[in-house]
Specification:
Helices cover about 35% and strands about 25% of the residues. The protein is α/β, with parallel strands linked by helices. It has a single domain (about 1-260), classed as P-loop containing nucleotide triphosphate hydrolases (Rossmann fold, 3-Layer(aba) Sandwich). The strands form 3 sheets. It has a 6-stranded mixed β-sheet, sandwiched between helices. The protein is globular, with a radius of gyration of 18 Å. The chain starts with a strand and ends in a 5-residue tail after the last helix. It binds adenosine-5'-triphosphate and magnesium ion. Magnesium ion binds near residues 41, 189 and 190.
């Protein structure tokens, strides 16, 4: 389970998130909605451990942060808010970015293979393939199969990571990485924006499928109810000006689509 306790997040001294309490259980889909600038991406970055985002706790001054009970984020019972992004990823957290980075010169297979090998040294690595017995050739086949399940143009796999990719292609690449690494918890930041209707359906359905099969907890940040048709949310949380103002079920997302945030 991801547990977030009274989390305050500051960027350059400015408070962006102000006392967030949230849990995501294994296998649970939690949707985060909220107006532009309400702090949704900040929540995703703070979870992933982006160094620009300074995390503290409502109750405790930052100087007390290291004390044992002053945890702010836990993953499966272990504190991670004092861990590096790399350690959080190893603990099973994966963030699919709203604006994925391009890295010219870094081939996709090479990136995936190196990351895969690093992760396969972790004892609770969860992929269905056994990394110890996979050769590079087999790995490539495995990646191609996953890419095909997303309807990803295979020609893209021969290029550098996200280099010159369209917005939608970048989003598909994020999901391909997620499928390859099979994390325990997945944070999707507006994976639906920029996707055409068919791609949205394929991607949301494939996330829903692996989440169910592998009991992955999903935090899905979105502006639209349509992704939730294919990736049904167990819980919908509304963020406004850095605070959770409402929590509800699927109906809440439908209401927002109809009447907007002003009247809820
Ligand atoms: N590095 C930063 N420096 C200054 N302000 C920042 C920084 N990062 C975020 N903010 C501010 O924090 C607020 C929340 O931003 P955030 O990106 O989390 O919003 P969001 O809910 O994801 O919005 P959107 O729906 O547009 O993606 C905004 O007002 C933004 O300008
Ligand atoms: Mg955002």
């Amino acid at each position: 389970m991801i547990e977030i306790k009274k989390m305050v997040v500051k960027v350059s001294g400015k408070t962006i998130l102000d006392g967030i309490n949230l849990t995501v259980k294994p296998g649970e889909v939690v949707a985060i909605m909220g107006p532009n600038g309400s702090g949704k991406s900040t929540l995703a970055y703070a979870l992933a451990g982006h160094p620009k985002y300074e995390i503290s706790n409502f109750q405790f001054p930052i100087s007390n942060k290291k004390k044992k009970n002053n945890w702010i984020i836990k993953l499966d019972g272990k504190r991670i808010d004092d861990k590096s992004p790399d350690e959080r990823a190893k603990a099973g957290l994966f963030l699919a970015n709203q604006y994925p980075m391009s890295i010219p010169g870094l081939g996709i297979y090479s990136f995936l293979w190196q990351t895969w090998k690093k992760r396969s040294q972790i004892s609770d690595f969860r992929s269905q393939k056994d990394p110890k017995v996979m050769s590079l050739v087999e790995f490539r086949k495995y990646v191609v199969e996953l890419a095909q399940s997303l309807n990803l143009n295979l020609e893209l796999l021969g290029r550098s990571l996200n280099d010159g990719f369209s917005g939608g292609e970048k989003k598909k690449m994020e999901i391909l990485q997620m499928l390859v690494f099979s994390p325990k918890y997945l944070v999707l930041d507006e994976i639906d924006s920029g996707l055409d209707v068919d791609a949205l359906k394929i991607i949301a359905q494939s996330v829903a499928k692996v989440a169910k099969e592998k009991n992955i907890g999903v935090l899905v940040i979105t502006h639209y109810n349509r992704i939730l048709k294919y990736l049904p949310a167990d819980k919908v949380v509304i963020l406004e000006k850095g605070k959770i103002i409402k929590t509800g079920g699927k109906k809440l997302a439908e209401e927002i689509e109809e009447i907007g945030y002003g009247k809820i």
